[in-house]
Amino acid sequence: MPDPDARNPEPSLMGPGACVRWIFRSLAPYRGAACLILLGLLAETAFSAAVPMSFRYLIDRALVGRDGRVLVVILVGLGVAAVLVSLAGLGRDYLYARTTAALLRDLRARLFTHLQELSVRDQAGARTGDVLSHFSGDLGAVESALTSAVPWAILPALDLLFSSVLLFVLDWRMALLSLLIWPVALLGPRVFAPLAARASYEKRQQEGDTLSLVQENLSAQPVVKAFGLEDWARAAFGTQNKTIFQSAARLNFLSSMVERSAGIGILLLQVLILGVGGYLAYEGQLSVGSLVSFQTLFLTLSYSLSYVTQYTPQLMQAAGAVQRLEALLAQPTQRRDAGEPPAAPDRWREIRFEEVSFGYTPERRNLDRVSFTLRAGERVAFVGASGSGKSTVLALLLGFYEADEGRIRVDGRPLEPSQLAAFRRQIAPVMQESFLFNVSVRENIRLGRLTATDAEVEEAARRAEIEAAVRDLPEGFETRVGERGGRLSGGQRQRIAIARALVRNPALLVLDEATSALDAAAEAAINDTLARVGAGRTVLMVTHRLASVVDVDCVYVMDQGRIVEQGRHAELLARDGAYAALWEKQHGFTLSANSDYAAVTPERLRDVPLLSALDAESLATLAPRFVTELCPADREVVREGDAGDRFYLIVRGRVEVLKEGVTGEERVAVLTDGDHFGELALLRDEPRSATVRTVQPCVFLSLVRESFLQVLDRAPELRDRLEEIARQRG
Questions:
Q1: For residue 143, what are the CA distances in angstroms to 16, 20, 103?
Q2: Is residue 84 helix, strand or coil?
Q3: Contacts of residue 654, Cβ cutoff 8 Å, sequence gap at least 6
Q4: All domains of the chain in start order, with CATH
Q5: pLDDT grade, residue 342 (50/70/90)?
Q6: pTM over 0.90
């Protein structure tokens, strides 16, 4: 997640003029409707200007001059014009409402489409709160500015234009004096508008931060409640809430100053114009009718200018929103327009990685000159410790990222970004987290191939061995699965994901830790299903459980971004290298079908450095003293600084090791099946040196210090030897 403080604190802000130009560019596809709207506005503006101009003739000729015919003509003409203008205004309102709604619809669709085309790297760097604020706050600000534009900006602006011209028609001397309204009205907004623009942009950023915090808190509710972190969460939100309060207060004050600074000058100028006009009429240099018309027009001009200045803060908020939207749309996508590449073949024969290097960040290479060949019909596996690069191979194969160096070739031709869509249609992944959409079971399976018929969907469910369970659901295949599939068990979600892959009829089935989050019984059942559905097709799997790769055609062993060994299971064991070490680490455990009981063999305990000095009898005595512990995901097993009193073996699952750093907790290691932690707690009563938190549901075997010391008391000569081993490791 990117650091919010890393954003540019002094962005080049968009002003009102740039925002207006952006709006006009956005209206370009609706030129015809915009012209009709403009004609309606001109008609309304002309009528608004005609009414005060008619006062001149009503007073000077009809009333003072006692001309009844002029009175009737003016009143009838104004009445007919009022009806026609009202009808035109209704049509203009309807057309403008549809046009602004269409503009926002297209902008919303453009944003969503752009998000789909962003690279996975850019998507991973985007915070959920920021993305949501684009669709809520930013689009809301643009919509508010558009819907208010006619009554608060366009009509007043046209009134300003017409009124200014007619003032010179009535009396050029007073018209020249009235021009003072422009510097008087615009000086204040010119000072305060840039400050309001920056405050608006900062408030938008703070809204994104707040949404991110709320979203993170909702996702972490199990951890918050389990550890009693409600007060801590409230304090964190209170700090953020205070920040957005300060931003909002600053923006509201500066916005009001934009309006207020213009209004004060306009009021004073109105009094001055009235005084000068009254003097000229008193001296006989201006008729009473002309004075009334001039004063009415000037009031119209004043109010129109006031409306425009009051609209300016709203426009400034829209400018901040537009700038954020444009920044998102300016991010490069994976789509390439450089010519038409050759189409990817319907069925490839060979995929080859040639000296491929890649890093998620410039500082570290996650893949270092990786080369291998995957041929059609083969079953291959990538294994290795967490962080060794095996999942990164899949990420590049699926086109989520582009290689920094080297090439990925399909049947000898480089795999270009513009070919990814066609290439991906031949691949069906089954991931560790089987994400399901909150639609029906049927639609979730059909997402594998949108053109699949109901019969094909049900056949895929049958092959994934989930059909019977689906038919037992309240609405069968039409049952909605809930958000992220929350109404189903983990095994059911995984089988639906397998059915989604099978309905695609892929040339390549990709399995990325597809069973690692399931219990032993569910894992065994899913593995059996995968073995059956994978028969006769190309399969590429990533796993850290070596028992599932015994029968594959080739195993690639990865370490620190490189392939260090490759071959079949038996060959790799015979070499007694990295693969053999991984195999030994994961063996020596037994686990019940529902994962509620585990045990370790004495021989396996000898692989723990601190226990390697114990004799066979001591190890045999120690093994049954290990206690099975089950731990859900996102749960702290030990906390840095807490008292250490037990040692843990990871029978199944994954944990992360965290240490307090300058910027908070930092991950220093990831441990999986067969790893251990807390070794020194068996000998020494010392605080924990790190925090260990589960990433997946875990099964541990734990040994308390007292049990270990009781065994050690039987062989006191070993204590000094173990202390020496502990000193070397500590």
A1: 15, 13, 9
A2: helix
A3: 386, 516, 670, 671, 672, 694, 695, 696, 698
A4: 4-329 (1.20.1560.10), 350-572 (3.40.50.300), 589-729 (2.60.120.10)
A5: very low
A6: no
